[in-house]
Design a protein that fits this description.
It contains four helices and no strands. The chain is mainly alpha-helical and 78 residues long. Helix 2 packs across helix 4. The longest helix has 23 residues. The chain is globular and about 40 Å long.
């Protein structure tokens, strides 16, 4: 059930401050990557994410965005 809630509207879930910060940043990184800046990274650090965590989050986000664009761009049906 939680997986479905995350997919439909994660903002209605009871999440930690760190989880909310991560999801807000991932959304921004996905929809408006050019708008991401050092203040975003600082905010992630302030809620407890380490630099390694932030790198991992960015890489997972980038991988899934890449994958979706390839699948959608080629009209594949998985």
């Amino acid at each position: 059930m939680e997986v479905e809630q995350i997919k439909t509207d994660w903002r209605k879930m009871r999440l930690t401050e760190a989880e909310v910060g991560m999801l807000e940043w991932v959304e921004k990184l996905t929809l408006a990557p050019a708008m991401c800046n050092e203040a975003d990274i600082k905010a992630l650090r302030e809620v407890g994410w380490t630099d390694r965590d932030i790198l991992d989050i960015a890489q997972v986000c980038a991988y899934f965005n890449f994958r979706v664009r390839i699948v959608d761009g080629l009209g594949l049906d998985l």
